[in-house]
């Protein structure tokens, strides 16, 4: 979610320039990845899986012969039945994960507009998975990042490393506070269309992960800019979203998308950009966490530019202009970075953003605000942003 589109002389396409949200101190050998400011080390080793395997070996040795044979019988039976049920392969998404216990599904939170959304990709000492619910007061949606084609990374991976009991406790606390807990997929590190990932298989795999770890839904942070330039992104996203919703039924799970605002510019993209996606599968998407940032130093930095009149660089991509193109207004969530360090451009102070939010509300908009990211955007940030429209009680 930290990509900037820049015109390159001699090219008709716009290239993404990736801007990291925060620069952390890197240990030797660390790899810095621009993924909404994602900073990750080398690929994680499945240490927890290895430890679990060792424990399993010890436990199996202690079993009586009859119990061992019974376990083998049921294991083979489940393996035989699995494909018949159409369950997608794990594809390594549970690498390093703590064992998943079978339990009664937790009650799912179902937020209504306005949505106040916070992402979490940064590494925070002492926090694994999701932070204490008291730290996110004022929000009703919290999104862990990221689920990639190669598996869960960063705080999405941290969520898998908690025990089933710990996850259930955290979910219960979040739901009691009226907060939905989701995962975001792709980000700027993944280019699923360009890399040839099958949209149906990818949707099946990601949906299975959401269900396995009992989250409330998934956010599609698709940032394959080359595919959008080439006109191949739209069809991929339509197929992916259709299958994702088939596996994650409406009412039971939330599906959101997080496109950059320029992708809504009409008559600009070869196959229509996100206006085509919305026309084809908008009814399957609960709302859009729109990235009104990282698109140029003067883009979306005033209430006018953000709400009613975008520049000629990205025509008709301000909030109400997107709605005029046919996208449902109450699905258009305004996304902004928490600090100047969380994006390259597009920052607004919380107090200025609060004025814009109030102005939009007075014109009938009630979709809400998204921010990148925790912990820079804490309770004080959202309290200020909501002060003139939907005050935090």
> Using DSSP, what is the number of strands?
13
Q: Roughly what is the average pLDDT, rounded to an integer? A: 82
- Oligomerization category of the chains in this entry: single chain
Report the biggest beta sheet as strand number plus sense, adding barrel if it closes.
8 strands, parallel, barrel
Written as H for each helix and E for each strand, in order along the chain, the element string is EEEEHHEEEHHEHEHHEHEHHEHEH
What is the helix fraction of residues, given as a range?
Answer: 25-40%
Q: Approximately what portion of the residues adopt beta-strand conformation?
A: 15-25%
What is the overall number of helices?
12
Strand order of the largest sheet: 5-6-8-9-10-11-12-13
The low-confidence parts are 3-92, 101-105
User: How does the overall form come out from the CA principal axes?
Assistant: globular
- What name does the CATH topology of the largest domain carry? TIM Barrel
Radius of gyration computed on alpha carbons: 21 Å
Number of domains: 2
- Which CATH architecture of the largest domain would you pick? Alpha-Beta Barrel
InterPro entries: GH (IPR017853), Glyco_hydro18_cat (IPR001223), Glyco_hydro_18_chit_AS (IPR001579), Glycosyl_Hydrlase18_Chitinase (IPR050542)
GO molecular function: endochitinase activity
Keywords: Carbohydrate metabolism, Chitin degradation, Glycosidase, Hydrolase, Polysaccharide degradation
Catalytic activity: Random endo-hydrolysis of N-acetyl-beta-D-glucosaminide (1->4)-beta-linkages in chitin and chitodextrins
């Amino acid at each position: 979610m930290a990509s900037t589109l820049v015109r390159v002389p001699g090219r008709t396409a716009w290239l993404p320039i990736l801007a990291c949200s925060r620069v952390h101190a890197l240990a030797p050998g660390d790899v810095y990845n621009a993924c909404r400011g994602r900073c990750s080390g080398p690929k994680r080793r499945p240490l927890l899986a290895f430890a679990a395997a060792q424990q399993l070996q010890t436990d199996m040795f202690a079993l009586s012969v009859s119990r061992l044979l019974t376990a083998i019988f049921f294991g083979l039976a489940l393996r035989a039945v699995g494909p018949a049920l159409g369950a997608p392969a794990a594809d390594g998404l549970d690498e390093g994960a703590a064992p998943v216990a079978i339990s009664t599904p937790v009650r799912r939170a179902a937020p209504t507009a306005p949505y106040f959304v916070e992402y979490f990709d940064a590494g925070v000492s002492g926090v694994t998975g999701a932070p204490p619910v008291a730290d996110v007061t004022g929000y009703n949606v919290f999104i862990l990042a990221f689920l990639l084609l190669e598996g869960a990374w960063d705080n999405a991976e941290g969520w898998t490393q908690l025990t089933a009991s710990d996850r259930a406790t955290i979910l219960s606390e979040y739901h009691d506070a009226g907060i939905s807990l989701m995962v975001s997929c792709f980000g700027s590190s993944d280019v699923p269309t360009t890399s040839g990932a099958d949209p149906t298989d990818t949707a099946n795999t990601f949906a299975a992960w959401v269900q396995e770890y009992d989250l409330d839904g998934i956010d599609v942070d698709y940032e394959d800019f080359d595919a959008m330039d080439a006109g191949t992104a739209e069809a991929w996203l339509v197929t992916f979203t259709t299958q994702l919703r088939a596996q994650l039924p409406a009412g039971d799970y939330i599906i959101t998308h997080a496109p950059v605002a320029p992708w809504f510019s009409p008559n600009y993209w070869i196959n229509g950009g996100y206006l085509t996606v919305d026309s084809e599968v908008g009814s399957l998407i609960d709302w859009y966490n729109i990235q009104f940032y990282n698109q140029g130093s003067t883009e979306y930095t005033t209430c006018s530019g953000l709400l009613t009149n975008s520049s000629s660089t990205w025509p008709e991509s301000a909030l109400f202009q997107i709605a005029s193109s046919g996208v449902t207004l109450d699905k258009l969530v305004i996304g902004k970075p928490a600090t100047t360090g969380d994006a390259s451009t597009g920052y607004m102070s919380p107090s200025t953003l609060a004025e814009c939010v109030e102005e939009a509300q007075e014109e009938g908009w009630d979709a809400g605000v998204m921010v990148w990211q925790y912990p820079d955007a804490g309770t004080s940030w959202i309290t200020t942003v909501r002060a003139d429209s939907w005050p935090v009680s």
